[in-house]
Amino acid sequence: MAVHGGARVGLIEALGVLPIGKTLREARLAVAGDGSTPKTRADLSSLRQYRPRLALALWLGRKPLGRRVPVTNLFNYLQPPPELGWSVRVTNVRDFRGGDTTYDSHNGTDLAIPPGTAVCAAAPGQVLRVSSEFHRGGRKVFLDHGRGLVTTYNHLARPLVAPGQNVRRGERIAISGYSGIDAVIAFPWVPPHVHFNCWLNGRYVDPFAPAQSPAPSLWRRHNDPTPAAPADLQDDAFEPSRFDEAAISAAAAACRHPDSRREIEQAGTIAERAGAALMHLAYFPTRFDQARLGPAFTLFRETFERAPRLDLPFSADDYDGIEIL
Q1: CATH code (residue 150)
Q2: Would the pLDDT of 2 be above 70?
Q3: What phi, psi does 47 have (nearest 5°)?
Q4: In a domain, 127, yes or no
Q5: Are 233 and 201 within one domain?
Q6: Are residues 102 and 134 in the same domain?
């Protein structure tokens, strides 16, 4: 599979199924859960994720909407408690427009693109983490943009950056795919996409702003994001977020899962330890004693308000904007 200006990506790489032993262990955890991670929940309403016509076109390297990126799922403002397990059901949902373009546990924005598409930094930043969790979004890149803002790019085929690396706005950081268990289960009927997350002060937030909200959109072009313009590509003014080392240690101490705790404790730099803690707190919240951490817990030494800072994470050579389906 290949796409305009992108890279050739084979199906095995796109799905991220290697190494097979790790993949099978993590698939089992997603389906059955364990003592600290609830199993994934699905029912017939989950079939709303199936969009065969769009999916097949994208898997074949086509762009059905031309230079517009289809958005297939938005952030759900009515997410269930994490202790109930990750839910791909559609039972109680509301997106930023008041609609239902989402599902129960969806905490990001799904940008549907052909595998092999260049994925770009949504703002200047530093790579916090590059990892692969087959049962939670496949291959990922985590970028710290400073002032408490972190973005993550999930379901990648091929990361192109390393932890500690600084990146410019619009710089290529990965090649897209659709790695992770959900793609393997639903192939080829669910559109390949980048699941784009935003965290502010360590909490999931929607980059879009509801009409009734006084808070601004995180997109620089309000709720109509576009890729960085060529003149923006040298915009590299960036100061990393300041992480609280004591808070990172507190997160590790509150973690009841030995593998997650070990990863947080053994990561190299403070930023890498923060990246590990952020990932595990966000993707595996039930592995932590949340009462011990408290509702106001944060890994950051300062907290910040929302501000318009992000661009659509693709190249202006490939796309002009989005279309929410």
Answers
A1: 2.70.70.10
A2: no
A3: -65, -10
A4: yes
A5: yes
A6: yes
